[in-house]
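Hi there, hope your week has been kind to you so far. Do you reckon you could talk me through the fold, stretch by stretch? Thanks so much in advance, here it is.
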Amino acid sequence: MTAGPESLSQLERQLGRLLVTGVVVSAVLLAGGLALWLRDAAGASTVWLLDAGLIALMATPILRVVVSFAEYVRMRDWFFVAMTMVVLAELTLTVIVAFRHH
């Protein structure tokens, strides 16, 4: 079964909101960390804000894949379920390898 135009339109709206939210959250965290850093307050909260902003920015596309996977399962579009599983597996492997070499 493939998804209809309305289901795909709803998915695109959800993904758009997710991406905007992720970028805004990341920007706010990074701006806060940068403001503290520029005030010469290179403390733990500065580092935390900068790290959280970068993690939010990197997590946004991964969350997009997770939401897409859940929606394709709900729509019973098995081809795209399989494709998003492949993408999610590749992203997971990349994160694991990156952390091992860090």
